[in-house]
Amino acid sequence: MSGLNLHLLQPNTQRTTPSGCVVFVHGGGFLGGAPSQFYPYAKAVSRQYGIPTACCEVSCLLTHPRAKVPIESVEDARRCVKYLQEKADDFGLDPDKIVLAGASSGGHTAAMAVLGAEEGLGLAGLLLFNPVLDLRFQERWRERRWCTWLGSSALRMRYGKKILEEESPIFNTRQLRQPVLILHGTEDRLVPLEEVEHFQEKMEGSGSDCKLVTFPGEGHFFFNWRVSPGNFYRCVGLLGDFLKQVGVLS
Fold first, then answer.
1. Domains in the chain, CATH or no CATH each
2. Which of 50, 115, 192, 204 could form a disulfide with 172 if both were Cys (CB 3.0 to 4.6 A apart)?
3. Helix, strand or coil for residue 22?
4. Predicted local distance difference test score (pLDDT) of residue 144
5. How does pLDDT run across 22-75, given as a tens digit for each residue?
6. Do 124 and 88 meet the contact criterion of CB atoms below 8 Å apart?
7. Which among 55, 40, 57, 44 is positioned nearest to 7, based on CA atoms?
């Protein structure tokens, strides 16, 4: 995959029929990050629900300085999903039962991989952890952290306002056939809750099934196992419920 890694974890349980799969896209503020961010989730989901999981690497500024990040990162995620669908028979997968998940900048990547795909990806569902939805970062601008201001300025200088809007999920909302679930901390200072609520309202207004589950008092990294084991296991449980909703689990 053009120098990018895709890590596939198969469960120990024997399967007689093709099964669904969860594909995780890492975050890292578009600067860095690695598939290993989602190893704890991949292992927990595979063990608890008995399905394969995959951790997808996408282009980042530090690892792929010549890439047009985050624009090419979105295409990386699409190629990852398409690769698994094309190799579904080899991996024992059902190509129509793949759920794409992403966190933070990876949430932006996963969302745009679906919203910006003209022909669709044939996914069963989309799961977003504290996703970046507006590359202009305008919501509650004064309350954001300095690293957000710096990153936003760099993106504006490189791409301009028009392209940033074209590449922002919040400006690309449309009706999707697959359900969307968003998990978000109410005290997130990197991606304000209002940004996510605005996105959810626009998605529902377009006819999409888009649900938001909030974690009161929690910040941007609430879902990480090292930050809060309690939140981690709650997220795994919510993911399991979502997999049942979209037909990946019986």
1. 6-245 (3.40.50.1820)
2. 115
3. strand
4. 58
5. 999 999 988 889 999 999 999 999 999 999 999 999 999 888 888 899 999 999
6. no
7. 55
- State both tokens at 84: 């698994």
**Which of these, 159, 1, 161, lies nearest to 83 by C-alpha position?**
1
pLDDT of residue 145: 58
Local mean pLDDT, 10-residue blocks, the chain (250 residues): 83 87 94 93 96 96 89 95 96 97 97 88 96 84 56 69 92 96 96 96 98 98 96 98 96
18, containing H or E segment: none
71-86 and 105-115 helices cross at what angle (nearest 10)? Answer: 70
Residue with tokens 């004064």: 142
pTM of the entire structure? Answer: 0.93
Which structure tokens are listed for 214?
């909030």
Q: In what order do the strands lie in the sheet with 19-25?
A: 6-9, 53-56, 19-25, 93-103, 125-129, 180-185, 210-215
Q: Which two tokens stand for residue 62?
A: 């530090």
Evaluate whether 168 touches 107 at the Cβ level (below 8 Å): no
Q: Give the chain's count of helices (H) and strands (E).
A: 8, 7
* Diameter over CA atoms, the chain: 55
